[in-house]
Amino acid sequence: xxxxxxxxxxxxxxxxxxxxxxxxxxxxxxxxxxxxxxxxxxxxxxxxxxxxxxxxxxxxxxxxxxxxxxxxxxxxxxxxxxxxxxxxxxxxxxxxxxxxxxxxxxxxxxxxxxxxxxxxxxxxxxxxxxxxxxxxxxxxxxxxxxxxxxxxxxxxxxxxxxxxxxxxxxxxxxxxxxxxxxxxxxxxxxxxxxxxxxxxxxxxxxxxxxxxxxxxxxxxxxxxxx
Length: 226
Hints:
This protein has 226 residues and is an alpha/beta fold. The chain has helices at 12-24, 35-44, 61-69, 88-96, 109-127, 158-168, 177-185, 193-207; strands spanning 4-8, 28-32, 49-53, 79-83, 101-104, 132-135, 138-141, 146-149, 152-154, 174-176, 214-217, 221-224.
């Protein structure tokens, strides 16, 4: 079955170009021109990925992203943010809200297609894995995308889940920010090292006391406690 992608943008030309490009790649594409239309589409059904413009006429794209991340059945849906602004502040705000990637307009349809493919490929790799990870009362079920600590389930975004899994697979080993970017985000993705820190901060907050299991190795990277 074709992966379903929701594209949200208020510029008709960009919306149609993106729809045609992703449709040619074999995806089932639905479009929305406003934040309210996007939220209505999300209520009708869960997409496999959302391409979301930051600047919408009725509400900020960040509001839509926040709604996705705070809705349990949508929380792990990958989000690629689009914006005409290249300001680092906007990029960080998007990542703090849980965006998985960030594309600045103008962009080429091929670039966006490669970003979409990379994110969905990682999701498939996780879904087809039967591996489970357990350390210090924290458990990850990779096949079901479930994180449990002390018998309580914790809702994580796709990137937060992959970040935690990457660390838990190598307990006691320090992973540099560069290595985490390569393994979690992939090569060629235009994100900065601060992206890792932003996601790590959110991950620790969600894990609560289990967040103490992730050590910061100053000037190097992060390590899951052995």
